[in-house]
Amino acid sequence: MATLARASRSEIETLLGDPPDHDLLKAPETGTVMVEGRAGGAGRRFNLGEATVTRCVVRLSNGRMGFSYALGRDGRKARLAALLDARLQDEAEGSDLHQGVATLAAQQTSARDLASRKAAATKVDFFTLVRGS
Amino acid sequence: MYVAVKGGEAAILATHDLVAEARRGDPAVPEISVAQIREQQALACARVMNEGSLYDQDLAALALKQSQGDVIEAAFLMRAYRTTLPRFGSSEPLDTAAMAIRRRVSATYKDLPGGQVLGPTYDYTHRLFDFALMDEGGEAAPRSAPTPLDATMPRVPDILGAEGLMEAEEPPEGDPRPFDLTRDPVSFPADRDVRLQSMARGDEGFLLGLGYSVQRGFGGTHPFVGEVRVGEVAVEFVPEELGFAVDLGDVTLTECQMVNQFQGSKEVPPQFTRGYGLVFGHSERKAMSMSLVDRALKARDFGEATNYPAQQDEFVLYHADNVEAAGFVEHLKLPHYVDFQGELELIRRIRREREERLAREQGAKEPDTMPEAAE
């Protein structure tokens, strides 16, 4: 679900292919989650502010349920992600679908890695100036 | 006094059309897209998300487009929209120690674990115009290091904390749910969770001014930036129907840990004290200002005098919210015809009575009148 939450709608659409038959147990719904922080990073909890979140619950014709929760307001993405979640539970590890998600996860990791390496290029190397002889 | 009056519908409709035209500007110039604002005015979007108290980059960009770049008007749009949404619940508290760092600097330690990472910052620019930006098509090509940054970097106050030199920051007994000022009225003295929430959604300029006042001596502190970090943090939420934490994706955050001078007591040896700032998006000035005022507002907790505005929670919390402040200031331009008529009647009566009194006194001073009786 973490990978799908970070994936774009088109990535999920491509991976899922034709949407399977399903019932919408909970139609895509946009709401908010109050994001909590901690004072000092580790202390008392406080409310930082809300974030938009969209969720969806589907049931495939075989009875399998799929859930999606992700930041943002994309209802179509939420529905496709819930369908993919249901399909993934039905398929064995190592199936094409699981491998597709693994590929997405790897792409997300490498994007994060690249961002980190760009930041690392701005890391300061201090050197000390020695005065006199 | 408020009295309902009708009229002005046609004028209001006409102004809607006119403001749409003003917003669009010269039609010969291509219209700006929401995606362009989101991608290319991200710092403005961050401010709108903070002051609108809603994390949604697309909506912040739309708000800025709709408000012609008026940040407070844009925050107002975010606040109004937020009230139409159901709330699914509260996230798990963010773990900023697990942030995917894009920028992290400390003014207290040169060689700290993880290093000083400048990231994308204007701090070391010359503030000279880059006229090349007048033309389109410039592509930046930042370099990248062969290896990424450390996966986690210790928060600087925790380094001092390990030595016992830093005021401890621990959750209170039972790790209670925080107060939510969007649901319950604030009372004073306000606890730290209320203060932090209020400042996180407060006006950047107001907090900047208050933070500056503290530095200039209106609430003496001598702060150091222990750390500023910017990056992405996962938001986790436990849906009722699932019963386990779900990763909703990442939000960009800026965190500031301000290290301030000592406090001690009979029980506790002198320690550094903390000020904390946490905000959405890349908003360093806001996070730093918040952490200065957070420390100033702890004055009472430390038994310090609270002589200055930044140390007074009621003053800070009641005036930090720019949507409320703008509403009350700007309502003055709405029709007050009846109130003003009342004032006008009053001042005319006062003047009339004054003139009558003066005339009477003048008459009383005439020599042929009876002297006033002694009291």
Task: Give me a quick take on this structure.
Chain A has 133 residues and is an alpha+beta fold. Chain A contains four helices and three strands. Chain B has helices spanning 9-24, 34-40, 42-52, 57-66, 71-82, 156-162, 192-200, 204-215, 284-297, 313-319, 322-330, 337-364, and strands spanning 54-55, 87-90, 100-105, 224-237, 246-263, 271-280.
Mean pLDDT of chain A: 94
Order of the strands making up the biggest sheet of chain B = 3-4-5-6
Rounded to the nearest angstrom, the distance between the terminal CA atoms of chain B is 43 Å
Tally of strands of chain A: 3
Classification by helices and strands of chain A: alpha+beta
Q: How are helices and strands ordered from N to C of chain A?
A: HHEEEHH
Strand order in space, largest sheet of chain A: 1-2-3
Task: Estimate nothing, just give the exact number of structural domains of chain B.
Answer: 2
- Catalogue the unreliable spans of chain A: none
CATH class of one domain in chain A: Alpha Beta
Distance, first to last CA of chain A: 63 Å
Low-confidence stretches of chain B: none
Number of strands of chain B: 6
Radius of gyration of chain B: 28 Å
Overall morphology of chain A: flat
Largest interface: A-B, 51 and 84 residues
Gross CATH architecture of one domain in chain A: 2-Layer Sandwich
- CATH topology title of one domain in chain A: Enolase-like, domain 1
Report strand % of chain A.
Answer: 25-35%
Number of helices of chain B: 12
Detailed description of the structure:
The complex is a heterodimer of chains A (133) and B (375). Chain A has 133 residues and is α+β, with helices and mostly antiparallel strands. Chain A has a domain at 2-92: 2-Layer Sandwich (Enolase-like, domain 1). Chain A has four helices and three strands. Chain A has a three-stranded antiparallel beta sheet with strand order 1-2-3. In chain A, a hairpin with a 4-residue loop joins β2 (45-60) and β3 (65-71). Chain A is flat. The N and C termini of chain A lie far apart (63 Å). The mean pLDDT of chain A is 94. Chain B has 375 residues and is an alpha+beta fold. Chain B has two domains: 9-82, no CATH class; 96-120 and 149-169 and 180-329, no CATH class. In chain B, 38% of the residues lie in helices and 14% in strands. Chain B is built from twelve helices and six strands. Chain B has a four-stranded antiparallel beta sheet. In chain B, a hairpin with a 7-residue loop joins β5 and β6 (271-280). Chain B starts with 8 loop residues before the first helix and ends in an 11-residue tail after the last helix. In chain B, 35% of the residues are buried. At the A-B interface, α1, β1, β2, β3 and α4 of A face β1, β2, β3, α7 and β4 of B. β1 (22-38) of chain A pairs parallel with β2 of chain B, so a sheet runs across the interface.
